[in-house]
């Protein structure tokens, strides 16, 4: 049951995030279906917040309704979406942190590119920790 006091797309998207625990376990078919439903709910809210829309789009890349997608395919789609967000907003620590974490998760599954993914994750993480944080919260204060 959803309790909506505002048109906040993060309510259902937060639930889908719980369906995908990047470093700990990969969602089974039931969790993928639940995540897709949560993404669809978030998309229907048509958030005016561009940041929320960006995270919803990234999550949607992972929870695509394509049964033939492998774990690696889903992780690559999610990571690519986060990479675009981070490249468009290089000072954004949240986008960078989620992108770096997606690369670590991808490295665990995609052994052909494991070292390259880990190196990109480290470089992104280092860049995030050495830059002045730029997030939605810091922009509004």
Overview features:
141 residues, flat, disordered N terminus, mainly alpha
Describe the 3D structure.
It is a single chain. With 141 residues, the chain is mostly helical. It has one domain. 67% of the residues lie in helices and 0% in strands. Helix 1 packs parallel to helix 3 and helix 4 runs antiparallel to helix 5. The longest helix has 18 residues. The protein is flat and about 35 Å long. The N terminus is likely disordered.
Compact summary:
This protein is an all-alpha fold.
SSE layout:
Elements: H1 10-17, H2 29-44, H3 50-62, H4 71-88, H5 93-109, H6 114-130, H7 136-140
Helix pairs in contact: 1-2, 1-3, 2-3, 3-4, 4-5, 5-6
Which oligomeric state applies? single chain
Class from secondary-structure proportions = mainly alpha
Amount of beta strand: under 5%
Helix fraction, binned, reads: 55-70%
Rg estimate, integer Å: 15 Å
Number of H- or I-type helical stretches: 7
User: What does the main sheet amount to?
Assistant: none
The count of strands amounts to 0
What does the overall shape look like? flat
Q: What is the first-to-last residue Cα distance?
A: 33 Å
